[in-house]
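Task card 7
Instruction: Convert sequence to structure tokens.
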Amino acid sequence: MDFKELKRKKERGVSNEEFMDQSKKFFSDADSIVVVGVDKDGVISSFYTQSTSLQAIGMMEVAKEQLIQEMEV
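Output:
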């Protein structure tokens, strides 16, 4: 594990690699998955497994609502 991963783990409690490993187990039987990330240059990329962009947009809206609700608690 490099310095950046150790720093992420200290700040968030989990490294990116550990997060992806846990997510892989959780979503192994999922029908649809959306992943969004920011690279070291600040470029945001998204990937999704469903066949329609509309479903991916809907899933992002649900994720946004869930995050807002968590912030309100």
